[in-house]
Specification:
This protein is mostly helical. The chain has one domain (10-133). 74% of the residues lie in helices and 8% in strands. The longest helix is centred in the last third of the chain and has 45 residues, at 86-130. It is elongated and about 75 Å long.
Amino acid sequence: MPTRLEFQTPEGRMSLPIRDVQFMAYDAGELAMRSMRDFVERMHMIGFGDLAEDYARQLAQNKVSIMELREAREDAEALLASKEECRVIADSISPRLEQLREVITRTQVEMRASIERLAALSAACDRALRQIPGYRPPERWSC
């Protein structure tokens, strides 16, 4: 079995060690779920650090937006509990919610594109590995 594999991906023509191709095909997603830091570090070693950093940044932005939504809800509940006028709620919280809505929408679009790029890269790696005569993917991924 060759030590490097050259193949076409949506990101362009690649020449990677088989170990890295296997990682991209079968293990990258699981590592991203366990440790984003390790995922980004490993992706940097392969040459896809920018793609991994974009995904990590979008995931972090999504978490920040969720925290900000919770904060806005708590503020609204506090204003309602003190029986302040609805106008105060509308004036203070509505602009925050609109801004958050825009950030969340943009983040979701960017995250979807990032995930699609990662998935396409993973699929290209799997296809390349399956072209090696006698190659068998790890049992947990056999189809």
